[in-house]
Amino acid sequence: MQVTATTVSLTVDDVARSRDFFVDHLGYQERMAADGFASLHRPDAAAADVVLLRRGIEVLPADQRHQRAGGLILALTLADGIAEEERRLRAEGVEITMPLRQEPWGERLFQVTDPNGVVVQFVEWAEPAAGSVAEPAAAENDA
User: Fold this and answer.
1) Cα 4 to chain centroid, rounded
2) pTM here?
């Protein structure tokens, strides 16, 4: 198997509102669209593409048509500049639904939520706090 791209497909109530959010604030570009559908792409090689499908659209199997994107966090890992990204989004009027924070294991992150409830998390890796365990599973295996 050779994977050539990664795409996250999200079922939302209002495709246009999510599309506009991803394009206007997150740097995605629309590749193609039709009624109830939009395919989005970022030029970064590592970024996952996003497909937005209107809830109830008949192209989905019957048991999936009325589901909403929920319980999912689309995480975008940044090389640096996470504080600047949070400031930029705030200045653009995007509600920051989880303010920037740093976890003891070295992850800096914040979250925004699109108009359909899709949670987008921005992540940047920093040095872990002194005494924190960066890889809990590894510590358990040593015991």
Assistant:
1) 19
2) 0.80
